[in-house]
Every structure is written in structure tokens, then in C-alpha cells.
């Protein structure tokens, strides 16, 4: 685990390749489509932890935007190019198997086995940003395909389930557009650093540990984009935002922030991979262990709160993000 990071320049020999690939592989759907439908945290959003901390920082700064505006600012467009090791028919092996990424991941995390399993294209419009957050960790048996993402972050930050945790190296490959990557290498109480998204460069980080976000694209005064659930963003000689067939807005190529998000499982060696794979974590067992921990810390003196209040209590106790 580390809050250090590595920067890579001259990522691909032909820097135009990736922007052309992103344009050709749309249209892109919004990351968040609906709130959590049932169970623990019902009605909350997938990353309620990061969204709540972001709103609290707005409250502290004295300027809170309406809920629909906040959603429009933070709901990025995403394309899935590789998911759990399965390709989606997009010719992106140059990135998935990039030797520089694997070498930096090994060096940064002190591991010898690097197993790329995920590649997303992320697109942010002017006025969009990503509130600072930890990435969603993975556990054997529990990952974002079967568990709310805020809960996985709670599990990761609690430190209670490390035996089942799969270590992950992350990278962001910058392609086009502005909006610094904000990172907190010295902790959330120290000043952050801004990493400019220089075209054809990349950053490798332990995104489950290093708090990070994306500064507002287009600058702090950029108005929120007219984004609503169901809209799509595609390339039609320029970027076009559509609601069904209807055109909502157009954006010049350099105004939209394009990046790729790469992730790889990392293991010290083959023996560690086998050991981790055998340590399955069960959702109900994890909830019960967290409730016990909250009792031990005096946070649940009586009955266990209902599903929403318990979710909020877990986030408050275990996930620490910058307050200003
Ligand atoms: Fe992230």
C-alpha cells in the first residue's frame, strides 16, 4: 500500500491513436444510471461516500448547488473496453499489455505478478469533475458486480478484511482535454498536488489508497453541463450530447476530457495469488464484523440502526476524506 505514484511520458509511439479509438468506440453512456435498489444503503448512490463528502465541502464553503446540478457535474460518461479480463471487441491491447504500466505497477507496489483486468474510457464534459475518493477495492467473493461500491470502500478503509483483499494497481492514461488529477500523497490533511493531464502521458497509482479526484473541466467557473440520466455522448465530427435522437449540446474535441482507466491485480508471487484466491469473504459476515467493530468503538450503543442509517454510520466512521 502506498500513496506514492509514478508518471510515464511518451505513452504510445503515435499519440493520435487513442483519441481516434475513443472517438470510434462511442457513443458513451453515463456512469450512474440509478440509485441502489434494495438492501443495505437502499436509495443511496453507488459512491455515496464520495458524493456526501463533496457536498459537505460545498456546505463548508457556503455554496451548495441543487441536487440535479451536482449529479450533472459528477456523472461522467464511460465506455467499458475490458471488464474482469474479458475484452469488449475494442483493439486496445497496446494499453492493456503496456510494458511501462506493468513495470511501474510492479515498482510502485513492490509486486512481481501483474494481471491487467479492467480498462475503461472516461469522458468528462466542461463543468464536470470527480469528487475526491478512494477507488473501489476488491475482495475475493465481494466486488462491484455483487456489492454496493461504497460498502467495498468501507471494507477496504476498515482494514478488517485484508486477508481477502486483492491488491490492485491503477493507471490513468491522459489523452485530451484539461482538468488536473488531484492527489493527496501526504494525506488528506496536507495540501494536494495537481497532476496536469498532459496528452500521451500516464500516472500509475494505488488508487484504493491514494485519495484522488479530477478538478473541474474548463475551470472553476465552468457551468454545469445539461446532463440527465439516459443521455449519450458520441463523436459526429465533434462531440455531440444526445437525449434519444435529440441533440442537446455540441463540444469541440479539446474541450472534452478523455482518459483511460487501467487496473491490474497485483501479487507478490504465484503462491500469494493462490492464497488470496482461497480467502472468500461473505457479505453478511462482513456486515456483522463491521457492526461488531462499530459497537467496540461505541458507535452503536443500542439496537443496530436501519439499513440507510447503518450505511451512513459505516461511511462516517471508516472513510476519511478531505474536509476542505
Ligand atoms: Fe478513481
Protein described:
With 324 residues, the chain is α+β, with helices and mostly antiparallel strands. It has a single domain (5-32, 78-288), classed as Jelly Rolls. The chain has 9 helices and 17 strands. The strands form 3 sheets. Strands 1, 2, 3, 4, 5, 9, 12, 14, 15, 16 and 17 form an 11-stranded antiparallel beta sheet that branches. Strands 6-13-10-11 form a 4-stranded antiparallel beta sheet. A hairpin with a 2-residue loop joins strand 15 and strand 16 (246-251). Helix 6 crosses helix 9. The longest helix is centred in the N-terminal third of the chain and has 14 residues, at 48-61. 41% of the residues are buried. The mean pLDDT is 93.
Tags for this entry?
324 residues; four-stranded antiparallel sheet; 9 helices; 26% strand; binds fe (ii) ion; 17 strands; alpha+beta; Jelly Rolls
Tell me the span between the first and last alpha carbons. 25 Å
SSE order, one letter for each helix or strand: EHEHHEEHHEEEHEEEEEEEEEEHHH
Q: What proportion strand? A: 25-35%
Show unreliable segments.
none
Globally, the shape reads globular
Class derived from helix and strand content:
alpha+beta
Blueprint of the fold:
Blueprint: E1 5-8, H1 16-24, E2 28-30, H2 48-61, H3 67-74, E3 77-83, E4 86-87, H4 93-96, H5 99-109, E5 113-124, E6 130-133, E7 138-139, H6 149-158, E8 165-166, E9 168-176, E10 181-183, E11 193-195, E12 201-205, E13 212-214, E14 232-235, E15 239-243, E16 246-251, E17 257-267, H7 270-277, H8 283-296, H9 307-318
Helix pairs in contact: 6-9
